[in-house]
Amino acid sequence: MISINEDCINCDMCVPECPVEAIDMGEAHYQINQSLCVECEGFYPEPSCYAVCPVDAVDIRK
Ligand code: SF4
Ligand code: SF4
Fold it and tell me: Which residues does the UniProt record annotate as the domain 4Fe-4S ferredoxin-type (predicted)?
C-alpha cells in the first residue's frame, strides 16, 4: 500500500507523475485514492510518486 504522510508539503510534484490520477488534495495534504492506485504496476519500475517526492512523504508498506 502506498500512502502520503503528514510530512507532505503540498509541492504538487507527484500529482502529474501518477499514471492513473490517484493523487488529489485532502484536508491538510495530498492523499492517494486507494481504489485507484495500482502502485504503478505496468507503468513504471517503482511507484513514481515515491520516486519524485522531495521530502520522503510517500510511504510504501508491503
Ligand atoms: S504508486 Fe503510482 S499509481 Fe499509486 S498513487 Fe503513486 S504514482 Fe499513482
Ligand atoms: S511530491 Fe511529496 S511533498 Fe509533494 S505533494 Fe507529493 S507527497 Fe506531497
Answer: 1-28
pLDDT digit string (tens) for 40-56? 999 999 999 999 999 99
**CA 46 – ligand 1 centroid, Å:** 9
CATH number of the domain within which 25 lies: 3.30.70.20
Residue-range definition of the domain harbouring residue 32: 1-62
CA quadruple 8, 4, 13, 47: dihedral positive or negative?
positive
For residue 44, report the distance from its CA to the centre of ligand 1, in Å: 9
Indicate whether 62 pLDDT > 90.
Answer: no
